[in-house]
Amino acid sequence: MQVGYHLTPFWSPTDRHPAAILDEAIEVVRATAHLDFEWVSMGQHWLSYPTIWPAPIPFLARLAPETGSMRIKTSVLLLPLLNPVEVAENVATLDHLTHGRLTVGVSIGYRETELAAAGVTRRDRASKLEETREEIGLDGVGFTIYSLPPSPAERIEYLQMIAEEIVAPATARTPATPEVGRL
Question: What is the DSSP letter of 180?
Answer without folding.
Answer: E
